[in-house]
Specification:
Layout (H helix, E strand, L loop, with lengths): L12 H4 L5 H20 L3 H14 L5 H13 L5 H9 L6 H12 L5 H12 L9 H11 L2 H13 L6 H13 L3 H9 L6 H13 L3 H13 L6 H14 L2 H13 L6 H13 L3 H10 L5 H13 L3 H13 L6 H13 L3 H13 L7 H13 L3 H9 L7 H14 L7 H12 L4 H13 L3 H13 L8 E6 L2 E6 L8 H19 L1
Antiparallel strand pairs: 1-2
Helix pairs in contact: 2-3, 2-4, 3-4, 4-5, 4-6, 5-6, 6-7, 6-8, 7-8, 8-9, 8-10, 10-11, 10-12, 11-12, 12-13, 12-14, 13-14, 14-15, 14-16, 16-17, 16-18, 17-18, 18-19, 18-20, 19-20, 20-21, 20-22, 21-22, 22-23, 22-24, 23-24, 24-25, 26-27
């Protein structure tokens, strides 16, 4: 080596990362406990960021327990940040499945459920093995999105990992299939269960109600009772929903008596279901009684009563309840305004209907749904404002569906049989364009032509219907006698006493004819 030059020191691994002494390790453990304690006290992301910075300074950023605590806050708190939690999960290489599960759960219950599925895919790509707590919230996300195909793929994944028999997994899977209209699959998942809970029964009964399988749902309820399971508040809510849909007041009262007999807590959800059932079944006195006795009610409770009153022609009462609702400081939603517009429609309160539709958007900031547009068309149409209703439909910011056009056509058929204003013919053409295969449209239009003596047009419509291979859907009605419900189809002879029933009908027809003469 030349004179005067100094050899630089060669740094070894022990110099760069000197081994920690017992005291250093003790100090690090103390710092970790301090950080964990601080994280548990955090109430905002700003505080989380401050503690996270300290974790980085102490060199504890790879500690899975600390990272898991931060992810827990990000995913479960209203003030949390799912995007920050996601960054931590995706850039950490030593986090176990519970951390991933927390993030999946956070996204599944958020406004972005699709991200739960994406996080799951990232987890699988990393080779992290899912647990039985991974799938329920994935199925919840798929249910919210009505993502049947993705749900079926995840179902297959549960089978591959041997987790498909878990009761929690199966309960959420039943809900997924039920919400996506696959009641047969939901029923199959239920029937294959070796262990069931009350949630399992509630899920399959609810799936039946959602898919309009009301009688099957009732049969499942009877089976549930026979299996030794006692119904809870959720069961009653589901049954009351079924009673409301089929209009079975007697059965609804029976369910209500069960609620009282078992001493179940009439919480907001159960109380709202009772109000809705009585209102839809036409017993508005009982609906009002339940409503007035409720300690706590939300916007859905008020809306159920308003809608029930409106549908049964008690428009003034519905509008009075709405004023009470405003006075109590309850913010109305789209269902509330659907009831209000329905009330205005029945009472021919056109000016009030226009004002409510305006306030709904500009005062309450509610964007009209297709049902609300249809309600406004009905309000105008019932009051014989056919041209205004037509212009309203034409100027809608969204493409009107067939229900909106059919609502307008019904008004034209009632108030302008001869189509002197020319609106009816335009609506008929539009309806045929939207639903060229719906037999009900053809029947309604041909009947109207027959009523006004336009025989040639009537024959043309019926020929088009016949050439298209369309058939009129048979009418159906339900009659309750002695606590039993009987279903009748047009020209139906399947009833045991059908011969006597038709003899009685013939007798009634003769009496009516004699009275007319």
């Amino acid at each position: 080596m030349p004179h005067g030059m100094v050899r630089p020191a060669i740094w070894t691994a022990s110099h760069i990362c000197p081994p920690r002494s017992y005291r250093d390790n003790l100090n690090l453990a103390s710092k970790k406990l301090e950080c964990l304690s601080s994280l548990k006290k955090c109430s905002s992301m700003k505080e989380i960021f401050q503690v996270h910075a300290q974790i980085q300074i102490f060199g504890l950023h790879r500690d899975p327990n600390l990272m898991d605590e931060i992810i827990q806050f990000c995913a479960s708190r209203p003030s949390g940040s799912l995007s920050h939690g996601r960054l931590l999960v995706e850039y950490s290489d030593n986090l176990a499945v519970p951390s991933w599960n927390k993030l999946i759960r956070g996204y599944a219950t958020s406004s972005f459920p699709i991200e739960a599925i994406r996080v799951f895919l990232a987890m699988r790509f990393r080779g992290v093995w899912p647990s039985r707590l991974t799938y329920p919230f994935l199925f919840k996300a798929c249910t919210t999105l009505l993502a049947l195909k993705e749900g079926q793929q995840i179902h297959v994944d549960t089978v591959k990992h041997g987790l498909d028999s878990d009761v929690y997994v199966r309960n959420t899977l039943i809900r997924l299939y039920g919400s996506c209209g696959e009641f047969v699959d939901a029923r199959q998942v239920f029937e294959e269960m070796t262990h069931r809970t009350i949630v399992s029964w509630n899920s399959v009964i609810s799936a039946g109600v959602e898919n309009l399988k009301f009688f099957e749902s009732m049969a499942l309820f009877v089976r549930m009772r026979d299996s030794g399971f006692e119904p809870d508040e959720t069961t009653m809510v589901i049954l009351l929903s079924a009673c409301a849909e089929v209009g079975n007041l007697d059965l609804g009262k029976c369910v209500h008596s069960q609620v009282i007999e078992k001493g179940l807590l009439v919480n907001c959800e159960l109380g709202t279901s009772l109000v809705n059932m009585y209102a839809k079944c036409g017993d508005l006195y009982c609906a009002s009684q339940v409503f007035d006795r409720m300690i706590v009610g939300d916007v859905w409770t008020w809306s159920s009563l308003i809608m029930g009153l409106a549908q049964h022609g008690l428009a003034k009462d519905a509008l009075h309840i709405f004023k009470r609702m405003q006075h109590c400081g309850i913010q109305p939603n789209h269902v509330t305004f659907l009831g209000i517009l329905c009330a205005c429609s029945h009472a021919r309160l056109v000016e009030e209907g226009r004002q409510f539709f305006h306030d709904m958007q500009h005062v309450y900031g509610i964007k009209p749904t297709m049902a609300l547009y249809g309600a406004m068309v009905d309000c105008l149409g019932r009051a014989c404002h056919l041209r205004e209703a037509y212009d309203f439909v034409i100027n809608m910011p969204v493409e009107p569906d067939a229900v909106v056009w059919r609502t307008l056509l019904s008004a034209c058929n009632i108030h302008d049989c001869n189509d002197s204003g020319g609106v009816g013919e335009k609506v008929r053409k539009k309806l045929f364009e939207l639903e060229p295969k719906r037999s009900g449209n053809f029947v309604m239009i041909s009947n109207k032509y027959a009523e006004v003596g336009m025989w040639e047009k009537m024959h043309h419509v019926r020929s088009a219907m016949r050439d298209g291979g369309l058939k009129k859907v048979a009418g159906m009605s339900y009659v309750q006698v002695g606590g039993s419900t009987y279903r009748f189809l047009s020209r139906d002879h399947s009833q045991v006493n059908s011969e006597n029933i038709y003899l009685l009908l013939d007798g009634l027809y003769l009496h009516i004819k004699d009275d007319e003469e």
